[in-house]
Amino acid sequence: MKKTENQLLVIFGASGDLTARKLVPSLFNLYVARQLPKNFIVLGTSRSDMTDNEFRNRVVLDSKYLKPKLEDLQKDYIEGFSNSFFYEDLGGSYNTHYGRLQKRIEDLDTKYGLDGNVIYYFSTPPTLYQPIAKRLGDVGLNNQQNGWKRVIVEKPFGYDLETAKELNSGLQEHFAETQIYRIDHYLGKETVQNLLVTRFANTIFEPLWNRNYIHHVEVTNAESVGVEKRGGYYDTSGALRDMFQNHLLQIVSLIVMEPPIGDAPEDIRNEKVKALKSLRVMTDPEVLKSHTIRGQYVGSEIKGEKIKGYREEDGVAKDSTTETYAAIKFFVDNWRWKDVPFYVRTAKRMPTKVTEVVIHFKSPHHHIFENSGVNNKDNKLIIRIQPDEGILMKFGVKVPGQGFKVERANLDFYYSSLAETRVMEAYERLLLDCMQGDATLYARSDEVEAAWQFVDPILTYWNKTEDVRMYGYAAGVWGPENADELIEGIGYWRNPSENLADDPGYCVIC
Ligand SMILES: NC(=O)C1=CN([C@@H]2O[C@H](COP(=O)(O)OP(=O)(O)OC[C@H]3O[C@@H](n4cnc5c(N)ncnc54)[C@H](OP(=O)(O)O)[C@@H]3O)[C@@H](O)[C@H]2O)C=CC1
Ligand SMILES: O=C1O[C@H](COP(=O)(O)O)[C@@H](O)[C@H](O)[C@H]1O
C-alpha cells in the first residue's frame, strides 16, 4: 500500500458546486475508509466572505450531498471530519496579493504538523487558473524546499489547441510538469482503468487486438439529462469540447495504445500520447463532411412530460449553434489499426445514461453453418463503463437439436457481483492518487495538446463552414437519424439498454 504523507489541501473555488458535490463527499469517503493521512487539513478559498464554521456548515454539516452519508453516524465522528476544514477569503479577487493566504498556510502547517506538503486544487472558472498559479509563484508558495507542492487543475484544459498551449506554458512557468495534475474524472472510473487490465493481463485478448481481427470500434457516451443548470457554460463549449476532447479521447487512447513497458505513470502516459498522436487528423472538408455529424436536441414530450429544447434552456442563446450531439468517424494511422474505423458519439438527452466501448470482431472468413452469418455475424466485446459496470462477450453457440443453427450467447462479468469490494468513486480515487504523488490517471500536457490537435480542425470546420448541418433530434431518441449514414455500410450504432445484464442474448434454459 502506498504511503499518504501529512498534507494540506487548498481548494480555490471552495464556495462552488464542484467542491460541495464532488470534492468534499470524496474526502469524506476517504475519511470513513481511513485513507486520509494522519495529519490532514482542508483550506477553502474563494471570494465569498465566510468564517471557518460557516464553511464547515456549507460543505459538510448542512450539505445536501453529504446528508445521506452522515445519517446514523455519531456527531463527534462527523465533527472529527468537519473540524479539519478551514476557510480564507481572498478579499474579493483572485488577483489579490497572496501574503495573507501564505500566512494562513504557514500557521496551519505549524499547528497541525503538515510537513510543508500542499495540494492546490483549482476549481474556479478556468480563466483564473493561470493568474492563481502566478500569484502562488510570486509569494513562493510553489517552493518545494520544505515539502512538496502539487496543483490539481480542473477541465477544461483550454478552449482549443492554442489556448491549451497557453495554459500549459502559463502553469509551467510556476510549477514543473511533474507537479501538475490535470484531472479527467473518467480516468478515475474503475471500468476505464479496467480497459488496461482487460488488454494487458489477458493473453486471450491482446493477440486479437489489431486490424487482423477487429472490424471496427464503437464508443458511446449518452446522457439522458440535458444541460441542467450549466447552460451558460455549455453553450460556450458543446459536446465535442465538453466530453469528446477529454473523456472520450482518453478512453480511445487506452483502446489504441501499445503495451506499456510497465505500470509506472510515465510508461502508461508515454503510450497514450503516442496513441493520440496516431489519430488521423482530418482537414479535408469532404472528409469532415462525411465523417462528422452534429446535432441539437429540440423541444419534445416524453411520457406526457414536456422537455425543453436546447435553445430554450437557461443561459443558452436562442439561436445557439452549439452541438449537444457529436458523432465522429476516424482512423488511426499506425501498424496495429490501419483501416479499422472508429465510431465515437456523445450526446445529451438520449434515451438512457450509458457509456460503453464495443469491440466488433471480424466475421469468420468462411461461413460453414447455415445461419451463422446472420445471427453470429461478429463476436463483440462490450466494455460497459457505466452504469452496470462490467464486460460482456458475445459469441456463437449451437442451438440444441438437429443441424447447426447458431445463436449469440453472452459471457459476462459485473462489478456489482463483487459484493465485498468497495468501488471508489472517480474523484475519490483521483484525489487519493494525487495525495500519494501518483499521476498515472492524470492527463499530461502533451496528451491534452495531442487531443486538441485532432479536435481543432473539426471545430473549425463546424464553426466556420457555412453549409454544415445542425440536425435536430427529439429528446429521448438516439440522436439524429443522419448519424446512421456515418456507420452505414459497416454496421449500425448499437443502442444499448440501461443495464448490460438486459442485453439480449441466446438463453437455452430461460
Ligand atoms: N461542477 C462540475 O460538475 C464540474 C466542474 N468542472 C470545472 O470545475 C471548475 C469549478 O466548477 P464549479 O464548481 O461547477 O463552478 P462554480 O461556478 O459553482 O464555482 C466557481 C467557484 O469559483 C469562484 N469564482 C471566482 N471568480 C469567479 C468569477 N469571476 N465568476 C464566477 N465564479 C467565480 C466562485 O466563488 P466566489 O464567487 O465566492 O469566488 C466559486 O467558488 C470549473 O472550471 C469547471 O469547468 C469540471 C467538471 C465538472
Ligand atoms: O465532465 C463532464 O461529465 C459529465 C458526465 O460525467 P459522468 O461521470 O456522469 O458520466 C457531463 O454531464 C458534463 O457535461 C461534463 O462536463
Question: Can you put this structure into words, describing what you see?
Answer:
This protein is 33% helix and 20% strand. By secondary structure, the chain is α/β, with parallel strands linked by helices. The chain has 2 domains: 7-154, Rossmann fold; 187-355 and 418-424 and 442-502, 2-Layer Sandwich (Dihydrodipicolinate Reductase, domain 2), CATH 3.30.360.10. It has a 9-stranded mixed beta sheet with strand order 16-15-14-13-7-12-11-8-17. Strands 3-2-1-4-5-6 form a 6-stranded parallel beta sheet. A two-stranded antiparallel sheet has the order 9-10. Strand 1, helix 1 and strand 2 (40-46) form a beta-alpha-beta unit. Helix 1 packs across helix 14. It is globular, with a radius of gyration of 24 Å. The relative contact order is 0.13. The mean pLDDT is 92. Residues 13-18, 46-48, 94, 123-126, 128, 154-156 line the site of NADPH dihydro-nicotinamide-adenine-dinucleotide phosphate.
